[in-house]
Amino acid sequence: MAGDRHPPEPLVSHLQSAGIPLSETAHTPTLCFVPLLNKLGSGSTTTTKPPSALTRLRIVLTVFFALDGFIFAGWVVRIPAIKEQTGASSSALGLALLGVSVGAVITMVFTGRLCRRYGSHPVTVVCAVLLSLSVALPPLTHSAAALAAVLVIFGIAYGGINVAFNSAAVDLVAALRRPIMPSFHAAFSLGGMVGAGVGGLIAGSLSPTRHLLGLTLIGLVVTAIAGPALLRLSPPAAPTDQPAKGNAPHRLDAHTRRLVLIFGFIALCTAFGEGALADWGALHLEQDLNAHPGMAAAGYSLFAGAMTIGRLSGTTLLERLGQTRVIVAGGATAAAGMLLGALAPTVWLALVGFAITGLGLANIFPVAVERAGALAGPSGVATASTLGYGGMLLGPPAIGFMADWFTLPIALTSVAALAGVAALIGYTTRR
């Protein structure tokens, strides 16, 4: 299941038809003869965007992934303050957070169709504007019901942009013929780390209203700069030896649907943990381990930083180990790390557990979404994203209910259980 390490034969014509920069496969000795062979085979045609256009597209998509993580993390680190402002109990807060889930999951179901009709790039830009505007709404509420209502709007934007830019990224992965999907999700994690870090630094001195309004301004400025660049770049054409997913039939055969659902469920199991730590990690450190609010906010920043490191090395790991080993090893590592993070008696041990969990979860979600997109195009991305981000967004309210029934540390061990399930599914379906 691993990505190819060597260019297929015939070498030059295949590379030219795929539009791949020769430097990306320069480790192959055969490329010493590329200049001569290019002259002999100059009659071949290119079916994808020039390498420079692909590079620009990769950069712009990376910016939107980072912006999404930055805005989302800026919101989650202020959840304790919003909880106090609204006077909500853990279960009431869990129900309010369900608003994000409802908005996102419903939107994800239809975003694949929007991407096929209007293109993934325009949908990405529109959702980025809505995301930037909606993040300023939660601190304006003073009840759990009002918070839930505005979080539905936030969830609509969040779900839409995630399907749209993941669809665009899948097209680019196919054009480049390299497993670069983790690098985009590394940008999301890096944005989350920065957003959480900034939130932790200003949590004691800046109100949630001013903080989240600042995120709105930053989001609109970044979208105003990166949006036109993305709209000018059309999606790359599929390589000649692969079907064009945009023209693929909308109704998938039963076998493909099962595979897409399997990858979607793997994404759900691991994204559950990401959502749980985003919304409850800081509260666990502050409430159960008596951490300072700034230190509590740093917990998610550390988790996101570990995910960033793991995803930055994701392409190399996938090329060397293959997708099955990455999924199995990642799930097992995340399960062990989360058990430590949830049950540790001290703040520092819990932080170590959060970091280990981030490393383990890092590459499972992007691999699952990329494989679903390769199988079924935007529909596959939408299905896997709906399940995956559904797990991320349904996880927090589930943790809230379990925290009321048991305790928050016990509730967080469910993250470890689902990470182990993802590893088991990845192993049993390896063929």
From TrEMBL:
It is a multi-pass membrane protein. Pfam families: MFS_1 (PF07690). The keyword Zinc does not apply. Its main location: membrane. Keywords: Membrane, Transmembrane, Transmembrane helix. The chain crosses the membrane at residues 59-79, 91-111, 123-140, 146-165, 186-206, 212-231, 259-283, 295-314, 326-344, 350-369, 381-399, 405-427. Residues 54-431 form the Major facilitator superfamily (MFS) profile domain. It comes from the Bacteria. SUPFAM superfamilies: MFS general substrate transporter. GO terms for molecular function: transmembrane transporter activity. It is found in: Cell membrane. InterPro entries: MFS, MFS_dom, MFS_trans_sf, MFS_Transporter. GO terms for cellular component: plasma membrane. This is MFS transporter. It comes from Streptomyces mesophilus.
